[in-house]
Amino acid sequence: MNGLIFMEVGKFAQARLGAAAWQRLARDAGVSHRVYVPVANYPDEELVGLLNVLSAETGVPVRGLLEALGEFVVPDLISLAQSVVQPEWKTLDLIANTEGAIHEVIRHAGTHSNPPYLRCRRVNEREVLVNYSSPRKLCPLACGIVKGVAKHYGETVTLAEPTCMLRGDAACQIVVTLV
């Protein structure tokens, strides 16, 4: 997992639990020796450990934390991707173009990052179908990011997940509908 996500978990924990939260989480997850940087990758198990500790501290299940984290990271992600996000785009445009404009660039940037594969199809002007596939099965993070993108653009969306990897399906289908 890319170090950027770990850095965002740290910011998220501090926003939720106070300034000392990150050090406590890292210690309790057994990764207090780590310094995470966005140009490196780290074991997925470290992220799982941090999320489990954060879940225990907050009482929020990991799935709910991932969704909230997804919403939380959007301002930083949009800032990082501003050179490829077209000014006329809104929520559904950004979602429909994430794979080609952002994920493919990340995969070919030499960072060895492995973002999820998204196959997006614009169903109509108010709906995008996202097929999400990743061995990490972090679809709640993806759903949170979608909600955060809508919030960024001042729009409202509904999400439906007819198939989900967490329910045993081969991939997730996320139907994003602009309200």
Notable features of this structure?
179 residues, alpha+beta, H-NOX domain, 2 domains, four-stranded antiparallel sheet, 6 helices, 49% helix
Your description of this structure?
The protein has six helices and four strands; from the N terminus they run H-H-H-H-H-E-E-H-E-E. It is α+β, with helices and mostly antiparallel strands and 179 residues long. Strands 1-2-4-3 form a four-stranded antiparallel sheet, with helices on one face. Helix 4 (62-80) packs across helix 6 (139-152) and helix 5 (91-107) packs across helix 6. It has two domains: 3-60; 66-178, H-NOX domain (Alpha-Beta Complex). The radius of gyration is 16 Å and the shape is globular.
The main sheet comes to: 4 strands, antiparallel
Range of strand content: 15-25%
The CATH topology of the largest domain corresponds to H-NOX domain
Residue windows where pLDDT falls under 50 for at least 5 positions: none
Which bin fits the share of residues in helices? 40-55%
Count structural domains: 2
Give average pLDDT, whole number.
Answer: 92
Structure annotation, total helices: 6
Number of strands: 4
Strand order of the largest sheet: 1-2-4-3
Distance between the termini: 33 Å
Question: Helix and strand string, N-terminal first?
Answer: HHHHHEEHEE
Can you say what the CATH homologous superfamily of the largest domain is?
H-NOX domain
Radius of gyration: 16 Å
| Shape field | globular
Q: What is the level-2 CATH architecture name of the largest domain?
A: Alpha-Beta Complex
